[in-house]
């Protein structure tokens, strides 16, 4: 598990290690078949368990979000998978307001969104991205940087404020 004391992530890559290699880094079907289970806990209570998470797509969404300018204000993060019906809502979203963030998921175990501090969320998600990178590279013995431009992901424009 990783993250801050209040937010904890646990992920398990469920795809076999032979499915992906540096040789097939531009093979979109191989990229999209890599799956994991991601569990998010808040204050030791289950927030959401996402099974069949399209791992590399989620990873790319995270790094693209982390690249945004968060200096003055945390930017919104909305994760939709390519194979997910957008009308159901985002698989995972972070909606900033004032100095807080509302974390929501369509598959949340809790009825209300989590309300968290922006700094805590940014630090936890940066840590998640770093840990995901290490685990993906370890599991598949790949250099993830060479895959990034080939990983498809959905850009979802959202309006905040």
From TrEMBL:
Q: Which InterPro entries match?
A: DUF7878 (IPR057200)
Superkingdom to which the source organism belongs: Bacteria
Q: Which Pfam families has this protein been placed in?
A: DUF7878
Which ranges carry the DUF7878 domain?
A: 9-137
Its protein name is: DUF7878 domain-containing protein
